[in-house]
Amino acid sequence: MKKILVLALAVTIATSPVLAYDIPNHFDMSREAAQRSVLQTDSNVLLNLGFSSLDIAGQKFLATEGENSTDFTDECKHMLLFPIDVLIGCGAQFEDVPGTRSLNHFYDPINNSPLKVRIPPIFGPLVAMGSTSPDWGVRR
Fold first, then answer.
1. pLDDT tens column, 105-124
2. Which of 6, 50, 89, 135 holds its CA 20 to 30 A away from the CA of 44?
3. Residue 41's pLDDT is what?
4. What is the DSSP string of 67-121?
5. Is 7 within a domain?
6. Is 90 exposed, middle or buried (0-12, 13-18, 19+ CB in 10 A)?
7. What is the pLDDT of residues 26-41, one digit of tens each?
């Protein structure tokens, strides 16, 4: 019985989607990265670019045009005004819709290849998913 439970757990873990691909997670990760970056720790960086601090409510910028998605967090909508840190978080979501676009964020510079995954998991051959990030970015 224990072997069956361990096998079932292993299959569940190996075949479940990775939460990092989840669109709302990209908002949180990107906003947190901005808040921990030199944009926050060195006030001269933003000042030299003509901006105030990351989260000044009065300093807002227009989000890009595009189609809104039910996958976005509630606060993220195209063509609205946001403080810099929220705009960075929303931009991370905007670039991931439709959902397969996030597969183009990966790049192996040694082999000049995109993300590769095993299908089926663990035992299957490596299959390229999407394009390399430089190729995808240039084509956009």
1. 778 888 888 878 778 877 78
2. 89
3. 86
4. ---TTS-TT--TT-EE-HHHHHHHHHHHTT-SGGGGGGG--BTTTTB-EEEESST
5. no
6. buried
7. 889 999 998 899 888 8
* Distances, alpha carbon 75 to alpha carbons 53, 84, 115, in Å: 20, 14, 30
Confidence (pLDDT) at 49:
85
pLDDT in tens, 58-83: 788 999 998 898 888 888 999 999 98
C-alpha to C-alpha distance for 87 and 66, rounded to whole angstroms: 14
Question: What is the value of pTM for the model shown?
Answer: 0.65
In this structure, the answer to whether residues 50 and 78 fall within a common structural domain is yes
Q: Which domain holds residue 63?
A: 19-97
Q: Contact, 130 vs 115, CB < 8 A?
A: yes
10 three-state secondary structure? helix
- For residue 118, being part of any structural domain is answered with yes
CB 93 within 8 A of CB 73: yes
